[in-house]
Amino acid sequence: GDSVTQMEGPVTLSEEAFLTINCTYTATGYPSLFWYVQYPGEGLQLLLKATKADDKGSNKGFEATYRKETTSFHLEKGSVQVSDSAVYFCALCHNQGGKLIFGQGTELSVKP
Amino acid sequence: GAGVSQSPSNKVTEKGKDVELRCDPISGHTALYWYRQSLGQGLEFLIYFQGNSAPDKSGLPSDRFSAERTGGSVSTLTIQRTQQEDSAVYLCASSPPGQGASGYTFGSGTRLTVV
Q: Do B43 and A105 touch (CB under 8 A)?
């Protein structure tokens, strides 16, 4: 069945460091891919998405590119801030009406 | 309301008791989803309602779990004879017509603790 694998956390970075959180997936066909973020004490929020191969999703300085050849959707940010500290979830959806399959989540802690 | 509302926010129950968790979706959202977030299991899909269609129950972990959605709006997730492994945060999300996973709004969840 479909699955999503994320790099394990926690990831600890200094402010202004470069961030990469790896995400790979297993799925038939062409799923849509998502990154969700859960800030401390808050609910899950959609961060960015990509619906087809080679699409790049971006938001709040974060980017991820849908790579069909490597079945990956790695999250990147050039310069992280303390306020980016959160848990990040990679997810896929096999059709627009259906359920999300989530990765395990990666906790990011950014130190000043 | 402005967002997806879940109640209660916290629930502590004794093993073997039944619990009901409530989700009020955003008005006009036709799709409603339940997920479970637990340590070691991440976020797991439980059940999905879309309009008047039969729900997708493929994620319910056992027959102790059931859910209904009345009048296409409020949903209740019921867990019978709770077990300690049911302890988790139960999340509800709703989505507008035609947006599916691209339009999710999640609630803040119900933290269930079975003692």
A: yes
Q: Say yes or no for a CB contact (<8 Å) between A101 and B33.
A: no
Burial class (CB within 10 angstroms; exposed 0-12, middle 13-18, buried 19+) of A76: middle
Closest CA to B102 of B27, B31, B5: B31
Are B104 and A46 an interchain contact pair (Cβ–Cβ within 8 Å)? yes
Looking up tokens 């087809």 gives A52
Provide CB contacts within 8 A for B113, sequence distance 6+: B10, B11, B12, B13, B87
Confidence class for position A96, pLDDT limits 50, 70, 90: low
Closest to B100 in 3D by CA, of B46, B29, B26, B5:
B29
By the CB < 8 Å criterion, does B104 face chain A? yes
Place of tokens 């004879």: B81
Give the DSSP H or E segment for B100. Answer: none
Mean pLDDT of A27-53: 92
Residues on chain B touching A98 (C-beta within 8 angstroms): 48, 56, 100-101
